[in-house]
Design a protein that fits this description.
Elements lengths: L3 H16 L3 E5 L4 E4 L15 H9 L4 H8 L10 E3 L11 E8 L2 E9 L11 H22 L2 H9 L3 H15 L4 E8 L14 E7 L8 E8 L6 H13 L3 E4 L9 H17 L6 E3 L6 H4 L24 H12 L4 H8 L3 H15 L6 H15 L1
Parallel strand pairs: 9-10
Antiparallel strand pairs: 1-2, 1-5, 3-4, 4-5, 6-8, 6-9, 7-8
Length: about 375
């Protein structure tokens, strides 16, 4: 079964053949979808390939400045090909022809062709515009599929039914195609109405999870990324969602298969919980960067029924908040009294007195490694 991406490539190659020039296809947000190869045997001078086109192919997107420059020629509302002259000052060393990709009056993307040195090309044959119309239909179908993916993502992440999860996975796979690398975001808390996918650039699917606990309702956002090492698309989407309503965003490790999304959601949720508990980790926290909270977040959300070790429970009473902070800082500083006193801005004798009170309340020996570990992990877990 051919992927949608393969269909786009075939159609771009068809336009390239019809017009005798390599074409590129971008969506309406100027993200590269497919491009035709340059024929190195045709005498093409690669030095004339301007920086704008090169950057688009290498990074698979154009900058906001480039997008604004091209849009000023009216391409977003055009229904016929638009010629855009060269402008070396803008990095556009060669003129190009823009074929708008529309479906039922809505712009969905653009096909670009570099023009020759002799200025605007001749009329574009109707056959090339017919191919653009086929591309527009595919892009419109894909946009509709993305808009309906939220319920399937919610089912995959939350359903107890194996059959329901399998059906949701099949629906996601049919809409998004095979392959690709994805990151899952957890935005918490989310008090507002859920935005639609078109309002969140870069999101393939969104869903709202009414999760109990201090983090409150959360939004799951599915993002396609180029490589596991480059999470910039996920961070861009995180910034959009934070500006709308969220306080923190957790990002799970990228996954290569949709079957791994439930695990990525647990990681993203853990990262969000950690960022809520320790603001210095946020407002955007990646699972790989939350340290010991990767283990602690596997525990249930804290709350009235949250289990607390009996030895540490007295220290977590509101009346002993200062002692708890002192103990946590002492353990964060690897038990070094001088560093701890400096961090807390107290005299060292005051520190020793507080630590002795901690030992009295808990019955733990702060000279014992296992007792230190129990106290440290209990205090960190209490923050979650």
């Amino acid at each position: 079964m051919r992927s949608v991406k393969g269909d786009y490539q075939d159609l771009v190659d068809e336009i390239s053949a019809l017009l005798g020039a390599p074409a590129t296809l971008e969506d309406r947000d100027f993200r590269l979808i497919a491009f035709g190869a340059h024929d190195s045997g045709s005498g093409f001078d690669e030095s004339t390939l301007d920086p704008v086109r090169t950057r688009s192919i290498l990074t698979r997107r154009s900058t906001a400045e480039v997008r604004a420059w091209f849009e000023k020629f009216g391409i977003a509302t055009a229904e016929a090909p638009v010629y855009i002259p060269a402008d070396p000052a803008a990095g556009v060393l060669r003129g190009r022809l823009c074929l708008p990709v529309r479906h039922r009056g809505v712009i969905h993307g653009y096909v670009w062709l570099l023009a020759g040195d002799d200025g605007p090309p001749g009329p574009v044959p109707a056959s090339a515009m017919a191919v653009c119309a086929r591309i527009g239909e595919l892009l419109a179908d894909e946009a509709r599929a993305r808009a309906d993916l939220g319920p399937h993502l919610l089912t995959l992440l939350t359903s107890d039914s194996a059959d329901s999860r399998a059906a949701a996975l099949a629906s996601l796979g049919a809409a998004l195609g095979d392959g690709g690398t994805y990151a899952l975001l957890c935005v918490a808390p989310w008090p507002e109405a859920l935005p639609g996918v078109p309002k969140v650039p870069g999101a393939a699917a969104l869903c709202l999870l009414p999760v109990p606990g201090p983090a409150g309702p959360r939004v799951a956002a599915l993002i396609r990324v180029r490589t596991p090492a480059d999470l910039s698309p996920a961070h861009q989407t995180a910034a959009t969602l934070l500006s709308a309503a969220g306080r923190v965003v957790g990002i799970g490790n990228p996954v290569h298969t949709l079957e791994d999304l439930p695990g990525a959601w647990r990681e993203a949720s853990a990262a969000a919980r950690a960022a809520l508990a320790r603001p210095h980790l946020g407002p955007v926290a990646e699972w790989s960067g939350i340290g010991p909270y990767r283990l602690l977040a596997a525990l249930p959300d804290s709350g009235p029924g949250h289990p607390v070790d009996p030895a540490v429970r007295p220290l977590l009473e509101p009346a002993h908040a200062e002692l708890a902070r002192t103990a946590e800082t002492f353990l964060d500083c690897a038990g070094q009294a001088a560093r701890t006193a400096t961090a807390l801005n107290i005299h060292r004798q005051t520190l020793y007195y507080r630590l002795s009170r901690v030992e009295q309340l808990t019955g733990l020996d702060l000279h014992n490694g296992e007792d230190r570990l129990l106290l440290h992990m209990s205090l960190k877990a209490a923050r979650l």
